[in-house]
TrEMBL record:
Its cofactor is pyridoxal 5'-phosphate. NCBIfam families: PRK09440.1-5. This is Valine--pyruvate transaminase. Gene3D superfamilies: Type I PLP-dependent aspartate aminotransferase-like (Major domain). Residues 35-411 form the Aminotransferase class I/classII large domain. Belongs to the class-I pyridoxal-phosphate-dependent aminotransferase family. Keywords: Aminotransferase, Pyridoxal phosphate, Transferase.
Length: 422
């Protein structure tokens, strides 16, 4: 065993979903003969129109004189200039902003952006103060659990629950009576729409969080991996919120380019500059090929168009299929609640008073050929014991309609047995 540093020790553990993926992959491999319905994926499906878009952009790049510039040269740490410019133009036009290229940073995927920010703004200052990374509404994206080199800096807050008992639906809201944003706050991060819950914080909630952080000059990172204008995986009206202390963060992973690793940060010039320096030290710059085709897709308007017309409706329909099948199959007298499906590519199910843990339920579902993700992986930074943490499941909308229907029937059957046994 190699002797590891403290950071080495910490970073060699997989967190959240990545840890469970190992179990899932082993299950799939071991049960090669058995047919599993795998609703655990965070990976979007390959939609033909989306693939065609990227194929066309690639063909255009290959046919242009730009090709050599893109693949045969190092580039700037900020990202490939034509993509920076495409984003500035698009956002200025679309949202009436005054962005210059100094307001934009491109990173190898948005995960790396959160890593930079968590360690630039969170952790110990040179005078020894601990700057906290605040997750204002737990559950949230499992990847935030692995981004800080200073584990004690990550602090998540329990939400309040809006429950519609007769409809078997609920929605999380930030609990402003508990949320503490103070001079110890280094930065704030949340996803909107949210992975895993599909929640979309309202404009007012977002503005309130930003206003709480403003007096301390703490950046609020709004993880817009599922937001409009691309991939536009919002099923409810939402407008991106911009502001002096907001870092608007995006990803092209859910718009068909997960493997090309493209993350985008938009915000205050000085913050962008600090993040860019971190990036230079870490990896010099993100890969340029994906950025060059992304610039074409944004400039032509096609990326936003396909996002709205293809990607959004595809997953919105999947959510409806899941919801209808779940409601048809689940016993009405049990205390289960589906989170309102406001966006992203997941459904989030809460089984109140569940007599076993979410991990045990996950194991029982595997026995009937259904793989989902136990919800407890999605509470990074939450220190308190909270039964709710062990009562939820994340179900991906990445199956076929038929698979989703069968999976909901099996899930309902297992849930009924589990409650009855108690
Ligand atoms: N943020 C959220 C909410 C996500 O769901 C994901 C990926 O699933 C990421 C960030 C990371 O995406 P990437 O690093 O591919 O941009």
């Amino acid at each position: 065993k190699p002797a590891l540093s403290k950071i080495g020790e910490q970073m060699s553990h997989l967190t959240g979903v990545r840890a469970i993926m190992k179990d899932i992959n082993e299950t799939l491999r071991a049960g090669a003969g058995q047919k599993f319905i795998n609703l655990s994926a965070g990976n979007p499906l390959i939609l033909p129109e989306v693939e065609q878009l990227w194929r066309d952009c690639t063909a255009s790049l290959l046919a242009s004189s730009e090709y050599g510039e893109v693949v045969c040269r190092y580039g700037s740490s900020q990202g490939y200039a034509p993509l920076v410019e495409a984003i500035a133009n698009d956002f200025n036009k679309r949202y009436g902003l005054n962005l210059t290229e100094r307001n934009i940073l491109l990173t190898p995927g948005s995960q790396s952006l959160y890593f930079y920010a968590a360690n630039v703004f969170g952790g110990y200052t040179s005078s020894g103060d601990l700057k906290e990374i605040i997750l204002p509404l737990s559950p949230d994206y499992t990847g935030y659990g692995g981004v800080t080199l200073c584990a004690e800096a990550l602090i998540a807050y329990k939400p309040t629950l809006d429950i519609d008992f007769s409809a078997h639906k609920f929605k999380y809201r930030p609990d402003f009576s508990q949320l503490e944003i103070t001079e110890n706050t280094g930065c704030v991060i949340f996803s909107r729409p949210c992975n895993p819950t599909g929640n979309v914080l309202t404009d007012d909630e977002v503005k309130k969080i930003a206003a709480l952080a403003a007096p301390f000059n703490a950046p609020v990172l709004i993880d817009s991996a599922y937001a409009p204008p691309f991939p536009a995986l919002n099923f409810t009206e939402m407008t991106p919120v911009f502001g002096d202390n907001i870092l608007h963060c995006m990803s092209l992973s859910k718009a068909g380019l997960p493997g090309e690793r493209i993350g985008i940060a938009i915000g205050d010039e000085e913050w962008i500059n600090v993040l860019e320096c971190f990036q230079t030290n870490m990896c010099i710059h993100p890969s340029r090929y994906g950025q060059a085709i992304a610039a074409r897709a944004i400039n032509s308007g096609k990326l936003a168009e396909i996002s709205e017309q293809v990607i959004r409706s595809f997953y919105q329909n999947k959510f409806t299929v899941l919801e209808e099948n779940l409601f048809a199959a689940m016993p009405k007298d049990l205390p289960w609640f589906l989170h309102r499906g406001e966006g992203a590519i997941f459904a989030w199910l809460w089984l109140d008073e569940l007599p076993i843990t979410d991990w045990e339920l996950y194991q029982e579902l595997k026995q009937v050929g259904v793989i989902v993700v136990p919800g407890s992986s999605f509470f990074p930074g939450l220190r308190e014991d909270w039964l709710h943490k062990h009562q939820c499941l994340r179900i991906s909308l990445t199956g076929s309609d038929e698979e989703i229907a069968i999976a909901m029937q099996r899930l309902a059957h297992v849930a009924q047995q589990v409650y009855q046994r108690a």
